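retry 2 of 3: previous attempt timed out while embedding NAP. Reduced batch size to 1 and resubmitted. Inputs unchanged:
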Amino acid sequence: MEGKHYINGEWSTEGDGVIDVRNPATGELFGTVPNGGEAEATKAIEAAEAAFPEWSKTTAYHRAELLMKWHDLLLENKQEVAEILTKEMGKPLAEAIGEIEYSASFISWYAEEGKRVYGHTIPASKDSKRIQIIKQPVGVVVSITPWNFPAAMMARKMAPALAAGCTFVAKPAKLTPLTAVKIYELAEQAGFPKGVINLVTGSAGKIGKVFTSHPAVRKLTFTGSTEIGKELMKQSSETMLNLSLELGGHAPIIVLDDADIDSAVKGVMASKFRNAGQTCVCGNRIYVQESIVDEFSRKLQEAAGKLKVGNGLDEGVEIGPLVDKDGYEKVEKHVQDAVGKGAKVLVGGDGQTANEAYFYNPTILLNANPDMLVMNEETFGPVAPIMSFKTDEEAVKLANDTRFGLAAYFFTESMSRGTYIAENLDYGIVGWNDGLPSAAQAPFGGMKESGIGREGGQEGLEAFLETKYISIQL
Ligand code: NAP
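retry 2 succeeded.
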Protein backbone atom coordinates (compact mmCIF):
# COMPACT_ATOMS: atom_id res chain seq x y z
CA MET A 1 0.00 0.00 0.00
CA GLU A 2 1.37 3.39 -0.98
CA GLY A 3 0.34 6.10 1.47
CA LYS A 4 0.36 9.80 0.70
CA HIS A 5 -0.03 13.13 2.44
CA TYR A 6 -3.45 14.74 2.15
CA ILE A 7 -2.99 18.51 2.01
CA ASN A 8 -5.56 21.07 0.88
CA GLY A 9 -7.69 18.39 -0.73
CA GLU A 10 -4.80 16.88 -2.74
CA TRP A 11 -2.86 13.65 -2.32
CA SER A 12 0.91 14.11 -2.58
CA THR A 13 4.21 12.33 -2.02
CA GLU A 14 6.60 15.19 -1.34
CA GLY A 15 9.38 14.80 1.16
CA ASP A 16 12.76 13.23 1.69
CA GLY A 17 12.08 9.76 0.25
CA VAL A 18 9.72 7.34 1.94
CA ILE A 19 9.26 5.58 5.29
CA ASP A 20 8.81 1.80 5.12
CA VAL A 21 5.90 0.31 7.03
CA ARG A 22 6.42 -3.31 8.09
CA ASN A 23 4.03 -5.98 9.25
CA PRO A 24 5.12 -6.75 12.84
CA ALA A 25 3.73 -10.29 12.60
CA THR A 26 5.92 -11.26 9.63
CA GLY A 27 8.59 -8.59 9.34
CA GLU A 28 7.51 -8.10 5.71
CA LEU A 29 7.24 -4.75 3.99
CA PHE A 30 3.57 -3.74 3.92
CA GLY A 31 3.78 -0.29 2.40
CA THR A 32 5.36 3.14 2.39
CA VAL A 33 4.47 6.73 3.20
CA PRO A 34 6.30 9.89 2.22
CA ASN A 35 8.93 11.16 4.64
CA GLY A 36 7.58 14.69 4.97
CA GLY A 37 9.10 17.47 7.03
CA GLU A 38 8.90 21.22 7.60
CA ALA A 39 7.65 22.13 4.11
CA GLU A 40 4.73 19.67 4.15
CA ALA A 41 3.75 20.53 7.73
CA THR A 42 3.77 24.24 6.86
CA LYS A 43 1.65 23.71 3.74
CA ALA A 44 -0.87 21.65 5.69
CA ILE A 45 -1.17 24.26 8.44
CA GLU A 46 -1.59 27.03 5.88
CA ALA A 47 -4.33 25.05 4.13
CA ALA A 48 -6.11 24.57 7.46
CA GLU A 49 -5.68 28.28 8.22
CA ALA A 50 -7.21 29.27 4.87
CA ALA A 51 -10.15 26.87 5.33
CA PHE A 52 -10.91 27.91 8.91
CA PRO A 53 -12.98 31.12 8.37
CA GLU A 54 -15.53 29.40 6.13
CA TRP A 55 -15.63 26.05 7.98
CA SER A 56 -16.02 27.69 11.39
CA LYS A 57 -19.07 29.60 10.09
CA THR A 58 -20.88 26.50 8.82
CA THR A 59 -23.69 25.28 11.02
CA ALA A 60 -23.23 22.42 13.46
CA TYR A 61 -26.03 20.67 11.53
CA HIS A 62 -24.03 20.81 8.30
CA ARG A 63 -20.88 19.59 10.04
CA ALA A 64 -22.88 16.76 11.61
CA GLU A 65 -24.11 15.63 8.17
CA LEU A 66 -20.54 15.34 6.89
CA LEU A 67 -19.39 13.62 10.07
CA MET A 68 -22.22 11.10 9.79
CA LYS A 69 -21.33 10.35 6.14
CA TRP A 70 -17.76 9.71 7.25
CA HIS A 71 -19.01 7.56 10.15
CA ASP A 72 -21.15 5.46 7.78
CA LEU A 73 -18.30 5.01 5.29
CA LEU A 74 -15.99 3.93 8.07
CA LEU A 75 -18.42 1.25 9.22
CA GLU A 76 -19.18 0.10 5.66
CA ASN A 77 -15.43 -0.34 5.10
CA LYS A 78 -14.50 -1.55 8.57
CA GLN A 79 -13.16 -4.90 7.39
CA GLU A 80 -10.74 -3.29 4.93
CA VAL A 81 -9.60 -0.60 7.37
CA ALA A 82 -9.18 -3.18 10.13
CA GLU A 83 -7.04 -5.40 7.91
CA ILE A 84 -4.73 -2.47 7.19
CA LEU A 85 -4.59 -1.77 10.91
CA THR A 86 -3.71 -5.36 11.77
CA LYS A 87 -1.09 -5.54 9.02
CA GLU A 88 0.77 -2.47 10.22
CA MET A 89 0.17 -2.70 13.98
CA GLY A 90 -0.27 -6.40 14.70
CA LYS A 91 -3.38 -6.51 16.89
CA PRO A 92 -5.81 -9.39 16.23
CA LEU A 93 -8.32 -8.63 13.48
CA ALA A 94 -11.31 -8.85 15.84
CA GLU A 95 -9.70 -6.18 18.03
CA ALA A 96 -8.93 -4.05 14.97
CA ILE A 97 -12.58 -4.23 13.90
CA GLY A 98 -13.51 -3.28 17.47
CA GLU A 99 -11.18 -0.29 17.22
CA ILE A 100 -12.84 0.90 14.00
CA GLU A 101 -16.29 0.59 15.60
CA TYR A 102 -15.02 2.46 18.67
CA SER A 103 -13.60 5.19 16.38
CA ALA A 104 -16.92 5.49 14.56
CA SER A 105 -18.73 5.81 17.89
CA PHE A 106 -16.78 9.01 18.59
CA ILE A 107 -17.65 10.43 15.19
CA SER A 108 -21.40 9.86 15.59
CA TRP A 109 -21.42 11.03 19.21
CA TYR A 110 -19.63 14.30 18.37
CA ALA A 111 -21.75 14.85 15.25
CA GLU A 112 -24.67 15.14 17.71
CA GLU A 113 -22.85 16.85 20.55
CA GLY A 114 -21.60 19.60 18.21
CA LYS A 115 -25.22 20.82 18.07
CA ARG A 116 -25.13 21.44 21.80
CA VAL A 117 -22.39 24.05 22.06
CA TYR A 118 -24.36 26.35 24.33
CA GLY A 119 -23.36 29.78 25.55
CA HIS A 120 -25.10 31.52 28.44
CA THR A 121 -26.00 34.92 29.85
CA ILE A 122 -25.19 36.19 33.34
CA PRO A 123 -27.14 38.87 35.26
CA ALA A 124 -25.03 42.09 35.26
CA SER A 125 -24.49 44.33 38.32
CA LYS A 126 -25.99 47.35 36.49
CA ASP A 127 -29.24 47.56 34.57
CA SER A 128 -27.37 49.29 31.72
CA LYS A 129 -25.19 46.22 31.05
CA ARG A 130 -25.66 42.75 29.60
CA ILE A 131 -23.20 39.87 29.95
CA GLN A 132 -23.03 37.17 27.28
CA ILE A 133 -20.77 34.15 27.17
CA ILE A 134 -20.28 32.44 23.82
CA LYS A 135 -18.23 29.43 22.74
CA GLN A 136 -16.23 29.51 19.51
CA PRO A 137 -13.92 27.01 17.79
CA VAL A 138 -10.34 27.38 18.95
CA GLY A 139 -8.93 27.54 15.37
CA VAL A 140 -6.37 25.42 13.54
CA VAL A 141 -5.72 22.18 15.46
CA VAL A 142 -2.67 19.96 15.01
CA SER A 143 -2.62 16.39 16.26
CA ILE A 144 0.09 13.81 16.94
CA THR A 145 -0.95 10.23 17.68
CA PRO A 146 0.73 6.93 18.66
CA TRP A 147 0.88 3.52 16.99
CA ASN A 148 -1.10 1.46 19.52
CA PHE A 149 -4.55 2.74 18.45
CA PRO A 150 -3.89 4.26 15.02
CA ALA A 151 -7.57 4.79 14.21
CA ALA A 152 -9.12 5.51 17.58
CA MET A 153 -6.63 8.06 18.85
CA MET A 154 -7.07 10.12 15.69
CA ALA A 155 -10.88 9.83 15.59
CA ARG A 156 -11.11 10.80 19.26
CA LYS A 157 -9.42 14.10 18.41
CA MET A 158 -10.64 14.74 14.88
CA ALA A 159 -14.36 14.20 15.48
CA PRO A 160 -14.79 16.76 18.29
CA ALA A 161 -12.42 19.24 16.62
CA LEU A 162 -14.40 19.16 13.35
CA ALA A 163 -17.74 19.19 15.18
CA ALA A 164 -16.62 22.30 17.07
CA GLY A 165 -15.75 24.06 13.78
CA CYS A 166 -11.96 23.71 13.89
CA THR A 167 -9.79 22.72 10.94
CA PHE A 168 -7.34 19.89 11.42
CA VAL A 169 -3.84 18.65 10.60
CA ALA A 170 -2.82 15.14 11.69
CA LYS A 171 0.56 13.46 12.00
CA PRO A 172 0.24 9.71 12.63
CA ALA A 173 2.96 7.50 14.12
CA LYS A 174 5.64 6.30 11.68
CA LEU A 175 4.95 2.63 12.51
CA THR A 176 1.22 2.90 11.65
CA PRO A 177 0.49 5.70 9.17
CA LEU A 178 -1.50 3.66 6.62
CA THR A 179 -4.64 3.28 8.75
CA ALA A 180 -4.70 7.09 8.93
CA VAL A 181 -4.32 7.33 5.15
CA LYS A 182 -7.29 5.00 4.62
CA ILE A 183 -9.42 6.90 7.15
CA TYR A 184 -8.60 10.15 5.32
CA GLU A 185 -9.62 8.58 2.00
CA LEU A 186 -13.02 7.86 3.53
CA ALA A 187 -13.24 11.36 5.00
CA GLU A 188 -12.48 12.79 1.54
CA GLN A 189 -15.35 10.69 0.11
CA ALA A 190 -17.61 12.04 2.84
CA GLY A 191 -17.02 15.48 1.33
CA PHE A 192 -15.12 17.64 3.82
CA PRO A 193 -14.13 20.84 1.97
CA LYS A 194 -10.49 21.21 0.95
CA GLY A 195 -8.15 22.34 3.69
CA VAL A 196 -10.50 21.33 6.53
CA ILE A 197 -8.70 18.02 7.12
CA ASN A 198 -5.03 17.49 6.33
CA LEU A 199 -2.61 14.62 6.91
CA VAL A 200 1.17 14.75 6.95
CA THR A 201 3.45 11.75 7.38
CA GLY A 202 7.18 11.82 8.06
CA SER A 203 9.76 13.06 10.51
CA ALA A 204 8.20 13.52 13.95
CA GLY A 205 10.86 15.96 15.11
CA LYS A 206 10.64 18.22 12.06
CA ILE A 207 6.85 18.18 11.81
CA GLY A 208 6.51 18.60 15.59
CA LYS A 209 8.71 21.73 15.53
CA VAL A 210 6.51 23.35 12.86
CA PHE A 211 3.34 22.30 14.72
CA THR A 212 4.52 23.99 17.91
CA SER A 213 5.97 27.14 16.34
CA HIS A 214 3.70 28.11 13.43
CA PRO A 215 1.71 31.20 14.45
CA ALA A 216 -1.49 29.97 12.75
CA VAL A 217 -1.76 26.92 15.01
CA ARG A 218 -3.98 27.43 18.08
CA LYS A 219 -4.13 23.97 19.58
CA LEU A 220 -1.98 20.86 19.83
CA THR A 221 -3.64 17.63 20.83
CA PHE A 222 -1.15 14.85 21.53
CA THR A 223 -1.38 11.22 22.57
CA GLY A 224 1.83 9.38 23.31
CA SER A 225 4.53 8.96 25.90
CA THR A 226 4.95 11.29 28.87
CA GLU A 227 8.52 11.97 27.74
CA ILE A 228 7.50 13.33 24.30
CA GLY A 229 4.48 15.08 25.84
CA LYS A 230 6.80 17.05 28.11
CA GLU A 231 9.06 17.92 25.19
CA LEU A 232 6.12 19.19 23.13
CA MET A 233 4.85 21.18 26.12
CA LYS A 234 8.22 22.93 26.35
CA GLN A 235 8.23 23.66 22.62
CA SER A 236 4.65 24.97 22.80
CA SER A 237 5.42 27.57 25.43
CA GLU A 238 6.74 30.01 22.79
CA THR A 239 3.39 30.23 21.02
CA MET A 240 1.34 29.59 24.21
CA LEU A 241 -0.50 26.76 22.49
CA ASN A 242 -3.69 25.41 23.94
CA LEU A 243 -2.68 21.83 24.82
CA SER A 244 -4.37 18.50 25.40
CA LEU A 245 -1.94 15.76 26.40
CA GLU A 246 -2.96 12.10 26.72
CA LEU A 247 0.18 10.45 28.06
CA GLY A 248 1.50 7.28 29.61
CA GLY A 249 -0.13 5.21 32.33
CA HIS A 250 0.80 2.60 34.92
CA ALA A 251 -2.59 1.28 35.90
CA PRO A 252 -3.12 -0.59 39.17
CA ILE A 253 -5.78 -3.26 39.56
CA ILE A 254 -6.96 -3.97 43.11
CA VAL A 255 -8.86 -7.17 43.86
CA LEU A 256 -10.53 -7.16 47.29
CA ASP A 257 -11.34 -10.32 49.22
CA ASP A 258 -15.11 -9.90 48.67
CA ALA A 259 -14.77 -9.64 44.87
CA ASP A 260 -16.52 -12.06 42.55
CA ILE A 261 -13.27 -13.79 41.60
CA ASP A 262 -14.43 -15.09 38.22
CA SER A 263 -15.60 -11.62 37.15
CA ALA A 264 -12.37 -10.11 38.45
CA VAL A 265 -10.33 -12.58 36.38
CA LYS A 266 -12.42 -11.70 33.33
CA GLY A 267 -11.94 -7.97 33.95
CA VAL A 268 -8.20 -8.35 34.46
CA MET A 269 -7.89 -10.42 31.27
CA ALA A 270 -9.71 -7.72 29.27
CA SER A 271 -7.69 -4.88 30.73
CA LYS A 272 -4.30 -6.59 30.71
CA PHE A 273 -4.16 -8.62 27.52
CA ARG A 274 -6.04 -6.45 25.01
CA ASN A 275 -3.64 -5.36 22.27
CA ALA A 276 -1.00 -7.68 23.81
CA GLY A 277 -0.78 -5.33 26.77
CA GLN A 278 0.13 -2.34 24.60
CA THR A 279 -2.47 0.13 25.84
CA CYS A 280 -2.06 3.19 28.04
CA VAL A 281 -4.89 1.97 30.29
CA CYS A 282 -3.66 -1.62 30.62
CA GLY A 283 -3.60 -2.95 34.14
CA ASN A 284 0.14 -2.98 34.78
CA ARG A 285 0.30 -4.19 38.39
CA ILE A 286 -2.22 -6.31 40.23
CA TYR A 287 -2.76 -6.06 43.98
CA VAL A 288 -4.74 -8.96 45.43
CA GLN A 289 -5.90 -9.26 49.05
CA GLU A 290 -3.86 -11.97 50.71
CA SER A 291 -6.67 -14.42 51.56
CA ILE A 292 -7.63 -14.82 47.88
CA VAL A 293 -4.22 -14.63 46.19
CA ASP A 294 -3.96 -18.39 45.61
CA GLU A 295 -7.41 -18.83 44.07
CA PHE A 296 -7.18 -15.64 42.00
CA SER A 297 -3.70 -16.32 40.63
CA ARG A 298 -4.57 -19.94 39.76
CA LYS A 299 -7.62 -18.82 37.79
CA LEU A 300 -5.74 -16.00 36.08
CA GLN A 301 -2.93 -18.42 35.17
CA GLU A 302 -5.47 -20.80 33.60
CA ALA A 303 -7.11 -18.04 31.59
CA ALA A 304 -3.82 -16.53 30.39
CA GLY A 305 -2.43 -19.94 29.49
CA LYS A 306 -5.30 -20.47 27.03
CA LEU A 307 -4.67 -17.32 24.97
CA LYS A 308 -3.61 -18.04 21.41
CA VAL A 309 -0.53 -16.13 20.25
CA GLY A 310 0.16 -15.50 16.56
CA ASN A 311 -0.44 -13.42 13.46
CA GLY A 312 -3.47 -11.23 14.13
CA LEU A 313 -4.94 -12.13 10.73
CA ASP A 314 -5.16 -15.83 11.67
CA GLU A 315 -8.42 -17.24 13.00
CA GLY A 316 -8.69 -17.37 16.78
CA VAL A 317 -5.51 -15.42 17.57
CA GLU A 318 -5.91 -13.30 20.72
CA ILE A 319 -2.37 -12.03 21.23
CA GLY A 320 -0.51 -10.54 18.28
CA PRO A 321 3.15 -9.55 18.09
CA LEU A 322 4.68 -6.69 20.03
CA VAL A 323 5.06 -3.74 17.73
CA ASP A 324 8.84 -3.89 17.44
CA LYS A 325 12.13 -5.11 18.85
CA ASP A 326 12.39 -2.25 21.38
CA GLY A 327 8.98 -3.16 22.73
CA TYR A 328 9.98 -6.82 23.05
CA GLU A 329 13.25 -6.00 24.78
CA LYS A 330 11.50 -3.80 27.33
CA VAL A 331 9.09 -6.62 28.21
CA GLU A 332 11.94 -9.12 28.46
CA LYS A 333 13.90 -6.76 30.69
CA HIS A 334 10.92 -6.26 33.02
CA VAL A 335 10.34 -10.00 33.36
CA GLN A 336 14.01 -10.83 33.94
CA ASP A 337 14.29 -8.05 36.52
CA ALA A 338 11.20 -9.33 38.33
CA VAL A 339 12.44 -12.93 38.35
CA GLY A 340 15.84 -11.75 39.61
CA LYS A 341 14.06 -9.99 42.49
CA GLY A 342 12.01 -13.02 43.54
CA ALA A 343 8.96 -13.23 41.26
CA LYS A 344 7.69 -16.68 40.33
CA VAL A 345 6.61 -17.27 36.72
CA LEU A 346 3.21 -19.02 36.75
CA VAL A 347 2.85 -19.04 32.97
CA GLY A 348 4.77 -17.53 30.04
CA GLY A 349 7.99 -15.70 30.78
CA ASP A 350 9.36 -16.09 27.28
CA GLY A 351 8.66 -15.38 23.64
CA GLN A 352 9.50 -16.13 20.03
CA THR A 353 11.56 -13.91 17.78
CA ALA A 354 12.12 -14.88 14.18
CA ASN A 355 12.11 -12.92 10.92
CA GLU A 356 11.99 -9.60 12.77
CA ALA A 357 8.66 -10.46 14.39
CA TYR A 358 8.50 -10.31 18.18
CA PHE A 359 5.89 -12.34 20.05
CA TYR A 360 5.80 -12.46 23.84
CA ASN A 361 3.73 -15.13 25.58
CA PRO A 362 1.08 -14.06 28.10
CA THR A 363 2.88 -14.02 31.42
CA ILE A 364 1.72 -14.12 35.03
CA LEU A 365 4.21 -13.32 37.78
CA LEU A 366 3.54 -14.07 41.43
CA ASN A 367 5.23 -12.51 44.50
CA ALA A 368 5.84 -9.15 42.84
CA ASN A 369 7.20 -6.37 45.04
CA PRO A 370 7.56 -2.57 44.75
CA ASP A 371 11.28 -2.77 43.88
CA MET A 372 10.61 -4.43 40.53
CA LEU A 373 10.67 -2.41 37.29
CA VAL A 374 7.37 -3.98 36.31
CA MET A 375 5.74 -2.37 39.37
CA ASN A 376 7.18 1.06 38.54
CA GLU A 377 6.94 1.66 34.77
CA GLU A 378 4.62 0.92 31.88
CA THR A 379 5.61 -2.56 30.62
CA PHE A 380 3.57 -2.27 27.39
CA GLY A 381 3.37 -6.02 27.01
CA PRO A 382 1.36 -9.08 28.09
CA VAL A 383 2.80 -9.36 31.60
CA ALA A 384 0.69 -9.37 34.77
CA PRO A 385 2.60 -9.14 38.07
CA ILE A 386 0.62 -10.02 41.23
CA MET A 387 1.43 -8.64 44.67
CA SER A 388 -0.58 -9.32 47.82
CA PHE A 389 -1.81 -6.71 50.31
CA LYS A 390 -3.53 -6.77 53.71
CA THR A 391 -5.81 -3.73 54.10
CA ASP A 392 -7.85 -1.53 51.75
CA GLU A 393 -5.85 1.53 52.88
CA GLU A 394 -2.59 -0.23 52.01
CA ALA A 395 -3.94 -1.12 48.53
CA VAL A 396 -4.90 2.50 47.81
CA LYS A 397 -1.50 3.71 49.02
CA LEU A 398 0.32 1.22 46.78
CA ALA A 399 -1.91 2.09 43.82
CA ASN A 400 -1.28 5.83 44.18
CA ASP A 401 2.47 5.48 44.66
CA THR A 402 3.39 6.54 41.11
CA ARG A 403 3.84 9.69 39.04
CA PHE A 404 1.15 8.43 36.66
CA GLY A 405 -2.62 8.83 37.07
CA LEU A 406 -4.45 7.64 33.96
CA ALA A 407 -6.58 4.56 34.71
CA ALA A 408 -7.11 2.35 37.77
CA TYR A 409 -9.37 -0.63 38.39
CA PHE A 410 -10.73 -2.44 41.39
CA PHE A 411 -13.03 -5.34 42.09
CA THR A 412 -15.32 -5.56 45.10
CA GLU A 413 -18.99 -6.35 45.74
CA SER A 414 -19.07 -3.92 48.68
CA MET A 415 -20.60 -0.48 48.08
CA SER A 416 -18.86 1.15 51.03
CA ARG A 417 -15.40 -0.32 50.39
CA GLY A 418 -15.76 0.45 46.69
CA THR A 419 -16.79 4.05 47.33
CA TYR A 420 -13.79 4.56 49.61
CA ILE A 421 -11.42 3.17 46.98
CA ALA A 422 -12.99 5.00 44.00
CA GLU A 423 -12.83 8.34 45.82
CA ASN A 424 -9.25 7.89 47.00
CA LEU A 425 -7.57 6.70 43.81
CA ASP A 426 -5.61 9.54 42.15
CA TYR A 427 -6.64 8.55 38.63
CA GLY A 428 -8.67 10.18 35.85
CA ILE A 429 -10.47 6.93 34.96
CA VAL A 430 -11.61 4.35 37.51
CA GLY A 431 -13.14 1.01 36.55
CA TRP A 432 -15.16 -0.57 39.40
CA ASN A 433 -15.75 -4.22 38.49
CA ASP A 434 -15.06 -3.00 34.94
CA GLY A 435 -11.91 -3.73 32.93
CA LEU A 436 -12.98 -1.73 29.85
CA PRO A 437 -14.41 1.64 30.94
CA SER A 438 -13.66 3.77 27.85
CA ALA A 439 -16.70 5.12 25.94
CA ALA A 440 -17.36 8.01 23.55
CA GLN A 441 -19.71 9.80 25.94
CA ALA A 442 -17.34 9.70 28.95
CA PRO A 443 -14.28 11.88 29.67
CA PHE A 444 -11.03 9.94 29.24
CA GLY A 445 -7.72 11.33 30.47
CA GLY A 446 -5.12 11.41 33.17
CA MET A 447 -4.01 13.18 36.32
CA LYS A 448 -0.39 13.85 37.35
CA GLU A 449 2.15 12.98 34.62
CA SER A 450 -0.48 11.12 32.59
CA GLY A 451 -1.53 14.37 31.01
CA ILE A 452 -3.73 17.42 30.74
CA GLY A 453 -7.31 17.53 29.50
CA ARG A 454 -9.91 14.93 28.59
CA GLU A 455 -11.10 13.23 25.40
CA GLY A 456 -14.62 11.91 25.04
CA GLY A 457 -17.82 13.32 26.48
CA GLN A 458 -18.67 17.00 26.78
CA GLU A 459 -15.16 17.69 28.06
CA GLY A 460 -13.73 16.37 24.80
CA LEU A 461 -15.67 18.98 22.82
CA GLU A 462 -14.89 21.78 25.26
CA ALA A 463 -11.20 21.09 24.55
CA PHE A 464 -11.68 22.55 21.04
CA LEU A 465 -13.66 25.63 22.11
CA GLU A 466 -12.68 29.07 23.37
CA THR A 467 -14.89 30.88 25.87
CA LYS A 468 -15.60 34.49 24.94
CA TYR A 469 -17.15 36.97 27.36
CA ILE A 470 -19.03 39.85 25.72
CA SER A 471 -19.88 42.77 27.99
CA ILE A 472 -22.55 45.03 26.49
CA GLN A 473 -23.06 48.62 27.69
CA LEU A 474 -26.55 49.60 26.55
P1 NAP B 1 5.69 8.29 21.51
O1 NAP B 1 7.03 7.78 21.23
O2 NAP B 1 5.56 9.43 22.47
O3 NAP B 1 5.07 8.70 20.10
C1 NAP B 1 3.79 9.23 19.99
C2 NAP B 1 3.74 10.16 18.79
O4 NAP B 1 4.65 11.23 19.00
C3 NAP B 1 4.14 9.49 17.48
O5 NAP B 1 3.36 10.02 16.43
C4 NAP B 1 5.58 9.93 17.32
O6 NAP B 1 5.99 9.99 15.98
C5 NAP B 1 5.50 11.35 17.88
N1 NAP B 1 6.78 11.90 18.28
C6 NAP B 1 7.88 11.26 18.71
N2 NAP B 1 8.87 12.15 18.95
C7 NAP B 1 8.38 13.38 18.65
C8 NAP B 1 8.92 14.69 18.67
N3 NAP B 1 10.16 14.94 19.09
N4 NAP B 1 8.13 15.71 18.27
C9 NAP B 1 6.87 15.49 17.84
N5 NAP B 1 6.31 14.26 17.81
C10 NAP B 1 7.05 13.22 18.22
O7 NAP B 1 4.71 7.17 22.04
P2 NAP B 1 4.41 5.76 21.39
O8 NAP B 1 5.49 4.85 21.78
O9 NAP B 1 4.07 5.91 19.96
O10 NAP B 1 3.05 5.39 22.13
C11 NAP B 1 3.00 4.75 23.34
C12 NAP B 1 2.75 5.75 24.46
O11 NAP B 1 1.50 6.42 24.25
C13 NAP B 1 2.61 5.04 25.79
O12 NAP B 1 3.29 5.75 26.77
C14 NAP B 1 1.10 5.08 26.03
O13 NAP B 1 0.75 5.00 27.39
C15 NAP B 1 0.73 6.39 25.43
N6 NAP B 1 -0.71 6.42 25.12
C16 NAP B 1 -1.51 7.22 25.88
C17 NAP B 1 -2.87 7.26 25.64
C18 NAP B 1 -3.79 8.13 26.45
O14 NAP B 1 -4.94 8.31 26.03
N7 NAP B 1 -3.36 8.67 27.57
C19 NAP B 1 -3.42 6.47 24.61
C20 NAP B 1 -2.57 5.65 23.86
C21 NAP B 1 -1.20 5.66 24.13
P3 NAP B 1 6.82 8.78 15.30
O15 NAP B 1 6.03 7.56 15.55
O16 NAP B 1 6.81 9.18 13.87
O17 NAP B 1 8.16 8.75 15.94
